[in-house]
From TrEMBL:
Keywords: Lipid metabolism, Steroid metabolism
Domain of life: Bacteria
This protein's name: SDR family oxidoreductase
Similarity annotation: Belongs to the short-chain dehydrogenases/reductases (SDR) family.
Keyword Acetylation carried by entry: no
Claim: Lipid metabolism is one of the keywords in the record: yes
């Protein structure tokens, strides 16, 4: 419970899925957590209720991180409430299936906005508060950011950009004792993958060497590892958690 005692963490997209599991695991380890969400008020409240059940502490802030100002508001809320920021988890993300040639300008702007610009904006506003105290920035990418996926071209491009953002920023921030890493999940059992049912799900599970989808808690436990001194010499890395799929 004390690994992250007193630390302050921002988790974007914390109202459900992997983001919820990350927020819970950070709180279980003693962190005070700000949960950012854009639409799902009830989901954000549920995350907080779960955290409160075991004595953790969290607040929620509704903002659209595609907006430079919205991202600043998230960071400002953390500073106003807790007085510091130690951990930034850029988890918020959206996906869309379809042929790239059918994509609209809105489709492209939306995916790049949430998946790449959002993490950049949150990090841009958060870093000045981390200088002088150190900290950890963890980006949640995807295995498709490394190898690309047909019919998820924009999504793959946004996550590939997030991977290189991680590597470049890690080099820039290392002298300030701010570590920047990335987790690239494979197929995780979340609402985003709920459309995979029956034979379609079974067929995909058979392609995964470990024979199953991953869980959000498995991603969350890696996040905690990256936020502690157990990984004190680890920065600029893309850690793929995909059950051996690629």
């Amino acid at each position: 419970m004390s690994k992250l005692l007193g630390k302050v963490a921002i988790v974007t997209g914390g109202s459900r899925g992997i983001g919820r599991d990350i927020a819970i695991e950070l709180a279980k380890n003693g962190a005070n957590v700000l949960i950012n969400y854009s639409k799902d008020e009830e989901g954000a409240k549920k995350t907080i209720d779960i955290i409160k059940e075991f004595g953790g502490y969290a607040i929620k802030v509704k903002e659209d991180i595609k907006s430079f100002k919205g991202a600043k508001n998230v960071v400002d809320a953390a500073i106003n409430k807790f007085g510091a920021i130690d951990i930034i988890i850029n988890n918020a993300g959206i996906s869309s299936l379809g042929l790239f040639m059918d994509a609209s300008e809105e489709d492209i702007d939306n995916l790049i906005g949430v998946n790449l610009k959002g993490p950049m904006y949150i990090t841009r506003h958060g870093i000045p508060h981390m200088i002088g105290r150190g900290g950890n920035i963890i980006n949640i990418s995807s295995m498709w950011g490394e190898v690309g996926a047909s019919c998820e071209v924009i999504y793959s491009a946004s996550k590939g950009g997030l991977n290189l953002f991680t590597k470049a920023l890690a080099k820039e921030m290392a002298p300030s004792n701010i570590r920047v890493n990335c987790i690239a999940p494979g197929v995780i059992d979340t609402d985003m993958n709920a459309f995979l049912q029956g034979e379609e799900r079974k067929s995909l599970e058979e392609e995964i060497p470990m024979g199953r989808f991953g869980s959000g808690s498995e991603i969350a436990k890696c996040v905690v590892f990256l936020c502690t001194d157990d990984s004190s010499y680890l920065t600029g890395q893309i850690i793929r958690i995909d059950g051996g799929l690629i």
